[in-house]
Structure formats: structure tokens, C-alpha cells
Amino acid sequence: MVLSHERLKIGRSNVIGPALSGSPFPTHAVGLDSCHEQIFPDPSDPAALRRAWSFEAYKRRELMDKEVHDLAIRFWDAGALGALEIPRLIKEWREPRHPEFVQMGKTAWHLLNSVTETIKGDLWRLPARTRAIHTILDKECGLERNGNGAPDEPLGIVEVTA
């Protein structure tokens, strides 16, 4: 694996982070505004790699409304959503309050942002709720975990080089 920490210019996007060759996780940035920087995960941090795998899978997994309805109930079953929060989640899914969510399309990434927007404010329960949400979305996106927490099948690699 070759690492270089260089500032890369991709379209209008400034990207700072390792340009990776032979990396086991996706290393591309999509839709970055010129005033934001994307920090790539540290390849030696297993938790960061798991998040990178998950987030990439969420961005690629398109969802139909009926799947979102089912996932809302699964979030409730897992204790990640309260019964009164389900209608707020569905409203946030259908009519996102942030324009960036609309631009994402109907993906698991959009759903993650919708559900986290819905559960904001309950700081005591937030970590457990967030873990439950990720567990459900990871399974929905086909991220079956092997012994080290990485997906069994790679999602594909898009390399960014200077």
C-alpha cells in the first residue's frame, strides 16, 4: 500500500488525506463543496475502516419507500426509534429539511441522515440508538461482518492519486 498525504484537486473539491494504492476501503469523495475537506480514514484504525465501508455501502444502496417503512419498524423493534418518532422519520425521508439530503437520492445514506436528524436531542440514549441503526443498515446493505469487522466482500476500490 502506498500512502501520500497530499492536497488533491478534484473538480471543485479540495481533498486532504491519504492517496491510497491497494487500499481495502473506498478512497473517493463525491459531491464535496469547495469549502469542505474530506478526511480519509486512517488505515491503521479498524473502527474508521468499518465506518468507511459502511458509509460507502449506504451511499450505493438505493431504497424504495416500502423498504424505508420496514426499516423504520426494525429501528423501533431495536429501540433506536420511539413509536412517536416513526412519523417524523418518514416525513424527514419524504421531505428532508436539508437540501443535501435531497441530492443524495433515495439511498441508505439518505435514510441514515433522516433517522439521525429525527433522533437528535436525546443525548443519553444517542450512542446506543446510533449503534442499533448502524447494525440494521449494515445488514440491509449486505455488510456481513467477518472476524475483524470488515465486510466479507469488498465493495470495490476507487483510487485517488495525485
Question: Which terms would index this structure?
Answer:
162 residues; mainly alpha
Structure description:
- With 162 residues, this protein is mainly alpha-helical.
- It has a domain at 65-140.
- It has helices at residues 46-60, 65-77, 86-94, 99-103, 108-119, 126-140, and strands at residues 5-10, 13-18, 37-39.
- Strands 1-2-3 form a three-stranded mixed sheet, with no helix packed on it.
- Residues 1-38 and 151-162 have low confidence and may be disordered.
Count of DSSP H/I helices: 6
Shape, principal axes of CA atoms: globular
State the separation between the terminal residues, measured CA to CA. Answer: 15 Å
Spell the H/E element sequence: EEEHHHHHH
Radius of gyration: 17 Å
The largest pleated sheet is described as: 3 strands, mixed
Determine the strand fraction and express it as a percent band: 5-15%
Summing up helix and strand content along with how strands pair, one would put the structural category as mainly alpha
Number of strands: 3
Kindly state the percentage of residues in helix.
40-55%
State the strand order across the main sheet. 1-2-3
The stretches of 5 or more residues where confidence is low (pLDDT under 50) are 1-38, 151-162
Mean pLDDT figure: 73
